[in-house]
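Possible regression after last week's pipeline update?

I re-ran a chain I had predicted before the update to compare outputs. Posting the input and the new output here so someone can diff against the archived version. Not blocking, just want to make sure nothing changed silently.
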Amino acid sequence: MGKYILIYFTILIMMLLITLILTFLLLIIFYQDWKSRAVWWPLFPMVFLIQCYRSIHVLGFNDFLLFLAMNLGILLMQLTVLYFYFAIKQKEMKIPLFKQYLGWGDVLLFLFLTTAFSPLNFVLFVMSGLILSLFLFLIIRKKSKTIPLAGILAAEYVIFIWVTKFYLDLNPYVELIPITP
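New output (post-update):
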């Protein structure tokens, strides 16, 4: 019995350290994006792999892959709608979506977020992050014409991580809004 308690606490401490490392990396993303609207690209694979590990640890591999595939489909749909919106707005099919409207850091952070949530929670998190970004843009628009979207989403996710750590009933892989018939 004592052996199992030791294993449990070892895993608990390991997950806490992984969460601290993830938090640190996300805060670096926030800081870099906020200051210079550019993020050192190796941070994205690091946070992606760490979050994959955290998610597989909680969900198991099969459910992780299912949620990841569904979230990637949702993200692809969002990017497609965004592309066609700007194409129609500019009356031209060839638009520089990733140069003019959306940074690669934003897309990479969205890819990271696909590993962190169930599909409904992914949509809710992204929508809340976009609304938060809009409000912040309205506040800082005189200083900058761009939005540090990756940084804002990274900071929002850090807050979410630590809220879920201390409020144990909140699980990002279980739907936040119960679906009842």
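Follow-up from reviewer: compared with the archived run. The two ends are 43 Å apart (CA to CA). Marking as no regression found.
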